[in-house]
Amino acid sequence: MKKNGVLLTTCLSSLVFYSAHAAPVPAKTSPHGDTAQHRTSRTAPRKNPARKSGTPEATVSNKAESIVVLGSGASRETQTLSHLALQEVAPGTSPLKTLSKLPGVMFTSSDPLGAYEWSQQIIIRGFDQSRLGFTMDGIPLGNLAYGNDNGLSIGRALQTENNGPATLAQGAGSVGVAASNDLGGALEFTSIDPTTKYGVDVAGTVGSYGTWRTFARVNSGTLPGGGRLYVSYDYQDANKWKGDGIQQQQQANAKFIQPLGEKVKLTLFGDYSQRAENDYQDLSLQLIRTRGYNVDNITNDYGLAKQIARAYQNGTAFPKGITNQDQSYYNSAGLRQDALGYGRLDFDITSRLKGYATVYGHTNTGEGIYATPYEATPDSLGGSPLSVRTTEYDIHREGFIGGLTYKIAHHTINGGFWFENNDFEQARRFYPLSESGYTGSSVHWFRNNPFATQWQSAFNTKTYQFHLQDTWQITPAFKLNYGFKSLVVDNHARQLEGNYMGTPVANTYAGGSITSANGFLPQLGGNYRINRHNEIFADFARNMAAFDNSTTGATSPFAMTTAAYAAAKNSLHPEMSYSEEIGYRYHDHRIQASLTGYYIEFENRLASISPVSSGTNVQGYASILSNVGGVTARGIDAAFNYHFTDNWSIYASYAYNQSTYDDNLTTGGVTYATKGKSVVAMPRNLANVQLSYDDGSIWGNVGMQYQGCRTYTYTNDQWIKPNDIFNLNVGYRFHSHNWVLHGLDAQINVTNLFDKRYVATVGSTGFAVSDPTGSLQTLQAGAPRMVFFTLRKHFF
């Protein structure tokens, strides 16, 4: 349900807890100075160097490319998924879903590809996406919140076919990661490079519920001036698996690499995407018990939607089978349009000194819409008991990232700077509906004719981050990383006047400015290689998350009224995390294994609370954003990757996380016993097992993902049952010299193989202190079994 943007802003992101560590980029030497060596123990063998016939040569490092790489040599827990692992799932699948096989990662979504953004939820060691760092080729993607005020999702930044290796650090990202909120880890995505040979790749996918997707990419090969270029485009369309509506996206990527002499390289990248998605209705435990998992919006029944609205507005009985006005909406949707680009120079100043400089820009226009029974259309504009309510977004941001790396003796010293200027506008508007409504299954923009603007706001955020780090190879076996970052984020808000049918309406939300700043956020880590197969590592990290800068953000001071902001401003502190971890890794030509234990303290947790009880709130006291305590987490992450024959391998991961609140919560004049209770949405147990086969032609894998019990209330009075979901991926690569079959491969992907009904996302509309009746609609149902078939063809 989107009627309140994020219902129950008692901290969707602030009472879900997050952690902090640092991770290297998976290369011999990362741009942040941390050295990582990656062994080639494989999840699947690679007899043929061209792992997929349609895969560009630049994406295949060698025929022993690892599917999962455990970060050998790193001083913190880190894993990397290869380009190949991200391609074995159904095209269009979010890489976030594929990454969920790594230890400690919980990802859920109510669509089979994990691309539906309203239900996307990724939690790592108890920290949800609003407190994780996300980058693509080093470019910040923001906090991945649904109503994102500072970025965009990886699925809108990069086509899945163009995903290169993706690296996860379960703690905090390295000190140079461009993120102002990475309390609990970082995910660093990369794009593949253009190939040196000319080629054309095309692919087509068909699947359940009318799914179809087309993709084409043209690689120029090496051009006369030495440059290389690719341009790609895809279009994807699917019906919802329940109810009426579509999930649709079109996207284009382009990447150009040009050497400028022997010591300088220029990289240019551009992305354009349009996404439109009709929503699935949020469910409650009560609805699931009484009506099942298939309750959804009533987009195909405008007459019933009008009856529900009139019953609510007139105080009369609801139609049969309808409990309240929020059970099923007529329609709701999310619309996003993005353009992202960057230019990067890499240069070798001397044999010891290297550097890079990147400039980037991003624009976004978005709407979250739903047909609301809470505001009728004026009679003069059509008189429907419904109107369309939008939350509208506009982002214009530009930034600079630069760094230098200097090697001297046994030291690799790295420093860098990140600056971003972000202008964000947000508004809540209402648009008229006639008695005949609008085409039920359509998703289209509402612009230029609102009859009411409830509020509109303009924000500016300036981010400054400096980092400095040294990697000291003290002995051939022992390496020490130590460094820090300084982070300053200045938020400014300006509230604009609203209107109703031309009559001015006062905007009661707060304006002003607030700064999040910390000059010393240290990271310290070490790695000791016992012998060629065994190593141990340990690290410590301290991190800060800047305040949100929006009218609807769960940790935004400007989501308060002017009076509440004035009362709270001087007492607010940014959220902080302190994390420690120690681990062990083993690696040889067939086995990779790791075991990590961690301890985390999360401080200055932010929540929106009411100062008085509802019964005594006769003066309408506004909720106040406050620091309400902390969270403590302890846990282990384990991963095992065994290539036990030339063609067979098994991968397994397990994570145990015990995250509990340190304090009781007082809101509405009532103190609730939350101390010692489990953090919402994060299960204590997560497990993955994947069995893989690959003989160079036939390949396949079957995997199981297990999620333990989760709660969506801070008092833990409601729990969601555990689930174990199986997925199957199989394919065949043709090696014929026949021009029709040459460069052809086919694959079948089956999601939710055993068609299990289960709750996927928990907390889609927020969390509650308690829900004794199980009536809070904040759950999303998991998709049933779905099958997808893909053909790829590489030409030339």
From TrEMBL:
Biased composition (Basic residues): 39-50
Bilayer topology annotation: Multi-pass membrane protein
GO MF term list: siderophore uptake transmembrane transporter activity
Localization annotation: Cell outer membrane
Superkingdom of origin organism: Bacteria
Keyword Phosphoprotein: no
Keywords from the UniProt entry: Cell outer membrane, Ion transport, Iron, Iron transport, Membrane, Receptor, Signal, TonB box, Transmembrane, Transmembrane beta strand, Transport
Domain TonB-dependent receptor plug: 85-174
Chain intervals for the UniProt region annotation (Disordered): 25-64
Signal peptide bounds: 1-22
Domain TonB-dependent receptor-like beta-barrel: residue ranges: 283-753
GO CC terms, sorted: cell outer membrane
Main localisation: membrane
Family assignment from sequence similarity: Belongs to the TonB-dependent receptor family.
Protein name: TonB-dependent receptor
Organism: Gluconobacter aidae
